[in-house]
Write a structure and sequence with these properties.
The protein is α/β, with parallel strands linked by helices and 317 residues long. The protein is built from twelve helices and ten strands. The strands form three sheets. It has a four-stranded parallel β-sheet, with helices on both faces. Strand 5 (185-191), helix 8 (198-216) and strand 6 form a beta-alpha-beta unit. Helix 3 crosses helix 12 (299-316) and helix 7 crosses helix 8 (198-216). It is globular, with a radius of gyration of 21 Å.
Length: 317
Amino acid sequence: MPKTTNDQRWNQMVNKIITSVIIAILAGILAPESTSAGEKLGLIIVAHGSPRPEWNTPVLNIEKEVKSILSERGDNPFSQIRVALMEFCEPSINTVINGFEDDGMDKVYVVPLFIAPSGHSLFDVPTILGLYSDRETLETLKEEGAAIADTRIKITVGPTLNTGNVLKEILLTRVMELSTEPESEAVVLLAHGDESFEPIWSSMCREIGAYVCSETGIPYFDYAFVEIGQSFISEGVPIILEAAGKHQKTIVVGIYLSMGVHNMAQNSTLDCGKMKIASRELFSDKNVHFAERGLLPDGRISDWIVDRALEWVEGLK
């Protein structure tokens, strides 16, 4: 079987993106321009999901928070609001869509609660929603146990969390929770990353880092993409040690929805053949502080979701 080159992978990704854009444009052209009287609107907040309940709980709690915010703002336009999980456990996307079908929803706005554009937000979620299809994505999702929705509901998918300032504001808070003497500190941002969308992720990290430094007076920042810890040793540790070698204190925060980076730093291992070194030993003589909290829990995420959802409703008028 011939190898797929980087250029071929890039071309395949570009073709997928172009196809998605064309589908979205055609859907917008063919769809009704406004909401008819009596149409029922639904809101679905989609997150990745985890086999670990402690990661899912803060995400599932968003459902109640969003309902509360909409109630406080008055005139909630949504008949149903649900959180759905893409993988691992219920409520799945398909389960929620089926429930919306039973309740007679006409139009649904889906907020993909992912950090930035990625294969998950641009291909997996739309495929599960029945909005996009290619054989490779379908086969992968079915192998992972995902059910593909078959619905008459008109679905619109919104942006990821890198839209607006919510990431900057929350990460500023996370850094300030650990900062004591900004002028002698450094900040390192850790994120999952997606090599197919690396320019977008890098731009996001640079913007967040520059914002945090300008607001705190911290003179130095850097970032690394470490997945959910798999690349912490190879990609994260060198960046952190470089920062620690230049500054008296290094603050490491993660751009993850419901996961901090403290456990990642404690539980990773450098494998040197017969010798294994725990990552925490690499920092034992360094003044490095790892954030224990992710983005959640934080009410600003729910406010951001409500803002995006109401923008969509306003566009239907």
